[in-house]
């Protein structure tokens, strides 16, 4: 008798928390949806920022190459002009 009483009480105590769970109300459901949306937007912003950093890095590299190339052309043209001036003076 004691064993069956202990078994019944143990089973009741194990199942008790299942019956005590509150159902999710509309405000709690809305809150969870807001959390999901916030996480999703945050993730998208991180992706956009990462893509922007990558594109800015490439644009900076391209600009640097263009400036270097332009500078080299100016140096080359300047040397040619200097040589032309020196040769015309002789």
Q: What percent of residues adopt helix (DSSP H or I)?
A: over 70%
Main sheet specs: none
Q: What structural class results from the helix and strand content?
A: mainly alpha
Low-confidence stretches: none
pLDDT average, as an integer? 82
State the order of secondary-structure elements, H for helix, E for strand. Answer: HH
What distance lies between the first and last C-alpha atoms, to the nearest angstrom? 128 Å
Radius of gyration from the CA trace?
A: 38 Å
The share of residues in extended strands comes to: under 5%
Number of helices: 2
Description of the molecule:
Helices cover 90% and strands 0% of the residues. The protein is mostly helical and 90 residues long. The chain is rod-shaped, with a radius of gyration of 38 Å.
Features:
90 residues, mainly alpha
SSE diagram, text form:
Layout (H helix, E strand, L loop, with lengths): L1 H18 L6 H63 L2
Brief summary:
The protein has helices at 2-19, 26-88. The protein is mainly α and 90 residues long. 0% of the residues are buried.
